[in-house]
Design goal:
Helix content is 31%, strand content 26%. The protein has 427 residues and is an alpha/beta fold. The chain has two domains: 204 residues, Enolpyruvate transferase domain (UDP-n-acetylglucosamine1-carboxyvinyl-transferase, Chain, Alpha-beta prism); 208 residues, UDP-n-acetylglucosamine1-carboxyvinyl-transferase, Chain (Alpha-beta prism). The strands form six sheets. It has a four-stranded mixed beta sheet with strand order 22-23-1-24. The protein has a four-stranded mixed beta sheet with strand order 2-15-17-16. The chain has a four-stranded mixed beta sheet with strand order 4-5-3-14, covered by helices on one side. Helix 11 packs parallel to helix 12.
Length: 427
């Protein structure tokens, strides 16, 4: 089932300052595909389309297979068929969940459908604290008995979960998704207050509704769910990846002769487009596409990450590279993950003028010429920022340990090479 060779020992070699021109198809959203795969545990079978063939998808597929599910992958068609009519266990051990935090998403579906679940505490990118306490507390309010032993969440609901009025102290995307999946088979009505409004949450809700769930309010901060007795198999196509769209918009703004992005949803990247406009970069927008060209002049802007529809934390690192080419000083403040600045040290190695100010803030001074060097990929979005920096840098850049990059970007090197970039994988 492996999509590609694991890339802990792989590197990317990029020769910078090559103008890019052509078309790039935006892949399906990884952060939408993962909860959709977890939702397959709510029924016997699910066929998902527009799935990005990235390492996180492989990890989730292995987890489901570990539970006894059967996975059929059509890699060239970006389809995954999941059959869960003969699950053997409700335990997701550490060996499967250690690679990504999204593994926690199997907790709600297993608990509500089978009355019990054992899920190890998840791993993932080291970008700051992302506790699962919010998931656990709200499941307890739905009647679950939960304890944590030796790093494993042990949950039981012998008489089934009960609908309840729930609230998140802090907006949580995976928390909202987990509770939403738990509630669709719970008895009675569940109301989720301060729910996440991200497009990926809405996409999951649309999938569940197609499966027979009764959900209202997805995309707002108040979601109502009336439990049903069972869900049925369906076919469903995942939305395009808004973070991949934003990443290529920045690449095009820096070195695009004329870069055309298609299979995207412009409304999902509105906050990114508005910041690009503020920086003096204007795009040609279609119904499901963008055309972007190299900006003649980039203006400094200040950025503060916020939950959707605000500026996404997953675009903070990529936009930081853009601002190294702005003519003046910019401030970036990450309110979601204040410690998510591991990429700063690596960008400094390339010649960037960036200072950590503390309290989740950094100062970026431009315009700065970047030059190639050897750097280390520390997390998924940091890896993307290093690719962008390497593409605009003078000379050759080597990016080590690209495993994180391939967790979330489908065929990135192939896509960049297709539009004129000089990039290759090496051992």
């Amino acid at each position: 089932m492996s999509f590609f060779r694991l890339s802990f020992s792989m590197k990317l070699e990029i020769s910078g300052q090559r103008e890019l021109s052509g078309e790039i198809r935006i892949s399906g959203a990884k952060n939408s595909a993962l909860p959709a795969m977890a939702a397959s545990l709510l029924t016997d079978e699910l066929l998902l389309e527009n799935i990005p063939m990235v390492e996180d998808i492989r990890s989730m597929a292995l987890l489901i297979e570990g539970l006894g599910g059967r996975i059929k992958i059509q890699k060239k068609k970006n389809k995954i068929k999941i059959n869960n009519n003969n699950l053997k266990t409700v335990e997701a051990p550490y060996e499967y969940v250690k690679k990504m935090r999204a593994s926690i998403l199997v907790l709600g579906p297993l608990l509500t459908r089978f009355g019990e679940a054992r899920v190890a505490y998840p791993g993932g990118c080291k970008i700051g604290a992302r506790p699962v306490d919010l998931h656990i507390e709200n499941l307890k309010r739905m009647g679950a008995e939960i304890r944590v032993e030796h790093g494993t969440i042990i949950a039981k609901a012998k008489d089934g979960l009960k609908g309840s009025r729930l609230s998140f102290e802090k907006v949580s995307v995976t928390g909202t998704e987990n509770i939403m999946m738990a509630a669709v088979l719970a008895e009675g009505e569940t109301i989720i207050e301060n729910a996440a409004k991200e497009p990926e949450v809405t996409d999951l809700a649309n999938l569940l509704i197609k499966m027979g769930a009764k959900i209202e309010g997805a995309g707002t901060d108040l979601i109502k769910i009336k439990g049903v007795k069972e869900l049925h198999p369906v076919e469903y196509s995942i939305i395009p990846d808004r973070i991949e769209t934003g990443t290529y918009l920045i690449i095009g703004s820096l070195i695009g002769k004329e870069l055309h992005l298609y299979n995207t949803i412009p409304e999902h990247v509105r906050s990114i487009v508005l910041k690009l406009n503020e920086a003096g970069i204007f795009l040609e927008e279609g119904k499901d596409s963008f055309t972007v060209k190299r900006a003649k002049k980039i203006l400094p802007v200040d950025i503060e990450t916020q939950p959707f529809p605000g500026f996404p934390t997953d675009m903070q690192a990529q936009f930081m590279v853009l601002l190294t080419q702005a003519e003046g000083r910019s401030i970036i403040r990450d309110t979601i993950f204040p410690g998510r600045f591991h990429h700063v040290d690596e960008l400094l190695r390339l010649g960037a003028n960036i200072k950590k100010l503390g309290n989740g803030e950094v100062s970026v001074m431009g315009k700065t010429e970047l030059s190639g060097a050897e750097v280390l990929a520390t997390d998924l979005r940091a890896s993307a920022s290093l690719v962008i920096a390497a593409l605009i840098a003078n000379g050759k850049t080597i990016i080590h340990d690209i495993f994180h990059l391939e967790r979330g970007y489908e065929r990135l090197s192939e896509k960049i090479k297709k539009v004129g970039g000089k990039i290759k994988k090496i051992k």
